[in-house]
Fold PBS lyase.
Amino acid sequence: MEALIETALRDRDQDGAIRWRAIEELQRRGDLETFTAAKRLCAGETPAERMLGVDILGRLGFVDRSLPVLRALSAREDDCLVLYSVLIAFGHLRDRRALPSVIALSEHADPGIRYGAAYALPNIMGSPPDPTGLAALRRLVHDPDEDVADWACLGLALSTGREVEDVRREVLDP
């Protein structure tokens, strides 16, 4: 396990193939030892350590144990890439308890973080979708960043079972 963590940390490309192969191997382990190591990384000194911990937790399982770690990190973290990873992890975990954290981050100044929120929201709002999550997506549809607005529009369509163009017309052309 430690060798996989070191391999992932050595790959400076956050989307690097070597890094993600190591993360996927750690996630496949699916054991408490890996969870403990990922949790420790989430409290690491460097953004690279924290992001690695988050990326491992995002698909490791242990939702009840991972959510408090990720929610605490979302409240105190100042690195935009780590926060983006937290939002993607929330989306993968698909748990409504992440909603307050995601809604708070949906108002962040950084468009990458807002994009992550637009990704996470439809995955965590539940069925029927939470009204506060829908309101956040509706707000993000008007985001000045085109990618954020497009993803929010798709999220609204997925959450309401409607066509993207119908949602776009309704929200953008009231």
